[in-house]
Description:
Layout: H1 6-21, H2 30-59, E1 63-67, H3 77-84, H4 87-96, H5 101-107, H6 117-131, E2 136-141, E3 149-153, E4 156-160, E5 172-174, E6 180-184, E7 187-189, E8 201-203, E9 206-218, E10 225-235, H7 241-245, H8 249-252, H9 254-260, H10 273-299, H11 308-311, E11 312-317, H12 324-335, H13 340-350, E12 351-354, E13 365-367, H14 368-374, H15 376-396, H16 403-407, E14 410-413, E15 416-420, H17 421-427, E16 431-434, H18 437-447, H19 449-454, E17 459-461, H20 468-474, H21 477-487, H22 508-533, E18 542-547, H23 556-571, E19 581-586, H24 594-610, E20 620-624, H25 630-636, E21 642-645, H26 657-663, E22 667-670, H27 676-683, E23 689-690, H28 695-703, H29 707-713, H30 715-725, H31 738-746, H32 753-771, H33 774-786, H34 793-805
Parallel strand pairs: 1-2, 1-11, 2-10, 11-12, 12-16, 16-17, 18-19, 18-21, 19-20, 21-22, 22-23
Antiparallel strand pairs: 3-4, 5-9, 6-9, 7-8, 9-10, 13-15, 14-15
Helix pairs in contact: 1-2, 2-3, 3-20, 6-34, 10-12, 12-13, 12-15, 14-15, 22-33, 23-24, 23-30, 23-32, 29-30, 30-31
Amino acid sequence: MATIDPxxxxxxxxxxxxxxxxxxMEQATKVDIFNSVCFxxxxxxxxxxxETEKRYADNDVKRMHYISMEFLTGPxxxxxxxxxxxxxxxxxxxxxxxxxxDDLIEFEPDPALGNGGLGRLAACFLDSLASMGMPGFGYGIxxxxxxxxxxxxGGYQHERPDFWYNKSSPWxxxxxxxxxxxxxxxxxEDSEDMVGEYNPMWVEWKLIVGRPHDIAVVxxxxxxxxxxxxxxxxxxxxxxxxxxxEGDYYRALEDKIRFENISKILYPSDSRDSGKxxxxxxxxFLVACAVHDIVSIYLNQHDSFDMFHEKVAIQLNDTHPALxxxxxxxxxxxxxxxxxxxxxxxxTRTLGYTNHTLMPEALETWPMHIxxxxxxxxxxxxxxxxxxxxxxxxEKYPDDPEKPRRMSIVIDNxxxxxxxxxxLAIVGSHSVNGVAAIHSELVKTxxxxxxxDLWPEKFxxxxxxxxxxxxxxxxxxxxxxxxxxxxxxxxxxDLGRLRELEAHCKETAFLERLLMIKRKNKVRLxxxxxxxxxxxxxxxxxxxxxxxxxHEYKRQLLNAMNIIHIYFQIRDxxxxxxxxxxxxxxxxxxxxxxxxxLVIRFIHGLAEIINKDSKANEWLKVVFIPDxxxxxxxxxxxxxxxxxxxxxxxMEASGTGNMKFAMNGAITIGTLDGANIEIAGEVGEExxxxxxxxxxxxxxxxxxxxxxxxxxxxPALKRVMDAVRSDIFCPDEPGIFxxxxxxxxxxxxxxxxxxxxxxxxxxxxxxxxxxxxxxxxAVKSLLNIARTGKFSSDRTIKEYAEExxxxxxxx
Length: 811
C-alpha cells in the first residue's frame, strides 16, 4: 500500500489551490478545494500508472481491451484513496488543514458515463482487472451528458440533462497527440488494383476526430493502475471558412455541430431515422477509435499482424460494439493490406462477445439504408462476411432451407433489409458468453440455437460479479470493519474467505454487532429519504428495497400489487402486520417508455394515499427515492433488510444488484431467474425467499392466459386489480392507471403478474414472520454475506482471463 508524506501532500494541495486556481485557501470555492485534493491524490496515481505501463511493455504482455457504451464508475476520490491505501491518512491531513473531508467526498458528482447494470458491471470488471494486476483496459465515449437526471413532480418522472463537468473533471487526463481519425459518410467507388483484383475505394468521406481522455483505474493495493480511455468527438476542421466568408454562418458550422453531437449524450433516441443515424454513428465512432488505439499500441512493438491475436484480446460488451468485427476487418484489409482469409482469422481469434439480454427487441438491428449512408465500406464488408457465411451454412445444412434465413446477418423484413448486430458479433467472435448459468443455457437453447448447433465450442457462461472494494469496503465501511476484525483483510482480494464468518453464526455478540451495523445503515438511509422525499420512515421497520431500472419485466408493478394487498388487509380486514414495513423504490424509466413511467406514477399514487392513512401508516410506508445512481446505491444497499429481485423468470440475464444486496446482508425475495438461481444455490434456499413460476412454465402460462380464472380463484387478487382499475390511488386524475389494469387483465399479462401474485404474497408473509425472530434473521443475513464469495467480479475476471482472453497477472 502507498503512504503519504503529510508535509508534501499539504504543500502540494495548497500549491494547487494557489497556482492552479489562483486563490488563497480563504478565497477557494468548494469546487477549487475538491479539485485540488483530487489533483494532489492524482500525483500518486500517475506514478503508478507509468510504472504499470512500463511493466506491460517490457514484458510484451497480451492485453485485453473491453469495449462498452457504458462505464458507471461512480465517484472516484474515495474509491481511489481506498485502493491506494491512503484513505485514513488523507482524511487526517485534509481535516487538519481545516477542511471537511467527508463533505468533500459527498460533493463529488457521479460521472455521467452510463445508465444501469451494463455500465456498473463494466466498472466492476475494470476494478478487478487492476486489482488482480491484469493488463485490461476499457474503451468508451466521453459523454458530456449521461442518460438524464430524474426528478419527480406530481408523481411523474421528469428528465433533465445530466451534465457532469467532464471538461474540468480532475480524473480525466487529456491524452494529446493520440487522436483517432474516423472516416464517415461518403460513397464507394468500384475500381481494380494493378493485377485486376476488385479494389473498392471509399471516397468523399468526412472525418471525425476522436480525442482520447484517460481515467486511471487504480487496483487495490496500488500496484497496478490501468486506464479507461474515453473519446470525445470533434469535427476535423473548425468550420468551412469559405462558406463562412460567403455569409452562410450556420451552414459553415453544420458539420462541426453535427459531429460533436456524437459524444454529447448517451443513447440518443432512435425513434426516427435521424436518431438512428446519430446512434449508429456513435457506436461506429466508439469502435473506430478503440480499434485505432488498439492497433497502434500493438504496432508499437510488432512489425506484422502475425501475433495480433496472441497479444490482443477484445471483448464486446453487448451488441453496441459489434461493429468492431467490420472495423477490424477494414483496418486490416484496407489500411494494412492483409488478405481477407488472414484478416478473418485474426479478427475471429481476437474478439469475444458477451450477450446481456434474451429480449429480441434489445438485440440491435439497423436498416441497411442507414448503414449505406453512414459507413458504406463497412456495409460492403458485412455483406461479404454474410455471403461467405451463408455459403457455408447452405453447404452444411442442405436439407434445412429456413436455416440460412434464421442465421443470416443481413435479413430481409418485408422488403427492407436490416443488419442483425448480434449475429455479426457471434459470427465474428471465437467466444460467446452469457452472464448467468440459466441465461447462458437460454442463449443456446432459445435465443440462437442454430448458432449453438453450428459452434457449440464457442458458447460458455461467465456469471457476473461485483467488486467488493466498492460494494462492501467503500459502501459499507462498518460491515467491512467487522469482517476485518473477525477474519482479517484477506477477503478484500479473495471474497471466498468470507466463508470463515460462518464459524461465528452462533455467537450472540457477533450477531448483535451485525444487527447494530444494519440499523446504523438504516438510520443513515432514513435520513436521506427524509431529505429527498420529505417522508419520515421508521428504521425499526423492514426496509424492503426494489432498486433497478423501471421495466415491465422487472415487475415493480407486482411489488406495488402486494403493497395494495397489505394495505387492504390493514384498512379493510383489520389484520395488523407482524412487523412494520417500509417499501423503498429507486430507478429510472426510459423517457419514451410509457408503461414504465406510469408505474412510477402508480407507486407515487400509493405513497400519497397510504402514507397519509392514519390507520395504516404506522405499519406501512411507501417511498420512491429519485435519481437512482451509483452514489445513491452505495447508501441504499447497505440499509436494505430485503432485496426485491422479482423479474419474470427467463427475462433477467443475470442481475448484479442482487449480488450487492446479498453481500451486504439483505435477504433476497426473488424468482428463479438470472443469478438468483446461483445465489440460492450458494446461500441456501432456507436463507432466501423464492417464489413464482419457473422458466419452463412461463410460456404455457402465456399461451393459456385466462384472467378470469385467476381473478375468480383469488378474492385478494381481484380486490387488488379492482383497485388498480379504480381511482383510489389517483383521485385527482381519474382513469390514469387503467392502462396498467388493461395490460394485465385484457392484454395477456405477458409478464405474469397475476400468475405469480399468490406465491409472491405468501413469500412476503413468511418473510415478515421470520423477521420477528431477530436472532435467526441475523443468522440468515450473516450466511448471505458469508456465502457470496462466488459473486466477486474477481472470480468472473479470472474465468474470462483463463478461458477466453488468455491474459495473466503481472504482479
